[in-house]
Amino acid sequence: MKRHELKHVFVLAAVLAAATALSACSAGSGKTASSESSEAETAEITVGASPAPHAEILAAVKPLLEEKGYKLNIVEYTDYVQPNLALDTGELDANYFQHLPYLEQFNEEQGTKLESAGAIHYEPFGIYAGKVNSLDALEEGAVVAVPNDTTNEARALLLLEAQGLIKLKDGAGLDATRNDIEENPYNLEILEVEAAQIPLSLPDVDIAVINGNYAIDAGLKVSDALAVEASDSEAAKTYGNVVAVREGDEGSEKTKALLEALKSEEVKDFINENYDGAVVPLF
Question: Which architecture characterizes domain 41-123+239-281 according to CATH?
Answer without folding.
Answer: 3-Layer(aba) Sandwich (3.40)
